[in-house]
Amino acid sequence: xxxxxxxxxxxxxxxxxxxxxxxxxxxxxxxxxxxxxxxxx
Length: 41
Known about the structure:
Elements: H1 2-7, H2 19-25, H3 35-40
């Protein structure tokens, strides 16, 4: 997924070890759907 986003022009993209589920389970911040798209536009 990160590679696809980079091809679409997103530059601040990281590959998460363990995936998004591990990130969320660790209590780390998430943005609401649409937030990243609005920031990219």
